[in-house]
Amino acid sequence: MRAHCTRLLLATLLFTSPATFAEPTLDELIDTIGERIAAVSAIHQEVTMLVSFGDDADMDGMEQRSSMRFQRPDQLLIESEMATIVSDGQVLSVVFTQFDHVIRKELEHGLIDVFEDQMELMGGAALPDVMALLSDRPAEILREAVEDFEIEILDDEEFEGRAAWAVRVHVEDDDVDLPEGLRIWVDQETGMLIGLRARIDLGDMEDHPVLDTMPSFYDIAYTVTIVSVNEEIDAEHFVYDISGLTEVSSFEELLESIQESGGMAAPETVPVGEPAPDFSLTLMDDTPFQLSEQQGNVVLIDFWATWCPPCVESLPHLQGLYEEFADEEVVFIGISLDRPGSEERVANMVERFGLTYLIGINEDGDIAREYGAVSIPTLIVVDAEGVVRHTKVGFSQAGMEEVKSILAELTGRE
């Protein structure tokens, strides 16, 4: 999906090619790692992405898990919280489990082209080591990925019990401040990325008037556990039962299908000026919430998830706005799209940021579909008459200021 929550992490990880080595050994190491990757006939790996905030040791952080199985020439299974990507060697299927839809493409010219196309359509990017694994020209793929980056070679060391090359990638980016760069580890047996550590500096936000609870930084720990290498993988892993799913031919058709099933008139979010779809939700404290019962109040709806960094980054902003408008007739409700069984994760996040506005979990995603919130975070502002007055997809400080202005207008504070 074109999920804003994935943009920062995918852009960050895109810098972390397993072949990012500095001169004078750059070409030799690219060739060596390309040879290691080419020698992998089958691989199964499990991935954990942990984002922790500040130096709060009591907070578990937000965790996202995924896995990959690959077997030459064209069998692939990638499972994550957002989608499942599976190729049986003939057809690549991208399954959006939350929306019960699937896109299927025949592998007319091999797996890598179709896989890359689908990743681009979903607004994401595959890691260079994965692209190299799927290709028959891994060294060339890696060379293309390492251009324009300053690389510091560190001493070789073990990572999670595996011999690894260790490097630091120095990143200059106007939107992301990584003062320590990206420290990455590359498995010497397979040539695959097995570890990444990065600190995102949020120091520029410390003086913002509504960010008293925002930590000064957050840490990303990306860890790959290689379960097996060059061991035959049962073909049943590369077969996905799509019965009951709606098949569409493209991402655009997916949006249109979701739009039609939700009765919406816009492909992304419910239109401004239209009545907000009514919904009911059981909140974290087990009390019921019904939107139609909020007539007379301005309502701010936030669709978010614990595994979405931009969503989490927006939480203290929302809490600050909630406190600022506490004396007004404004209701804030955060609707988590975490999977069933995530109550503890959501509760930990609520506690970590001291959220005091309403929070509920929409496990089956039906409310999000009704509102067209196919990307998160998505903010919806509903006026006192129940009409949508503002929508915002993604997170930015400017976007929050815009929401603040809308709330001020609707409550007569301007």
Total helices: the number is 10
Specify the CATH architecture of the largest domain.
Clam
Q: How is the quaternary structure best described?
A: single chain
Major sheet details: 13 strands, mixed
**Rounded radius of gyration (Å):** 23 Å
Low-confidence stretches: 1-24, 205-213, 262-267
**What is the CATH class designation of the largest domain?**
Mainly Beta
In short:
With 414 residues, this protein is of the alpha+beta class.
What does this 3D model show about the protein?
By secondary structure, the protein is α+β, with helices and mostly antiparallel strands. It has two domains: 235 residues, Clam (outer membrane lipoprotein receptor (LolB), chain A); 144 residues, Glutaredoxin. It is built from ten helices and 20 strands. Strands 1, 2, 3, 4, 5, 6, 7, 8, 9, 10, 11, 12 and 13 form a 13-stranded mixed beta sheet that branches. The protein has a five-stranded mixed beta sheet with strand order 18-17-16-19-20, with helices on one face. A two-stranded antiparallel sheet has the order 14-15. Strand 17, helix 8 and strand 18 form a beta-alpha-beta unit. Helix 2 packs across helix 5 and helix 4 runs antiparallel to helix 5. The protein is globular and about 65 Å long. The relative contact order is 0.15.
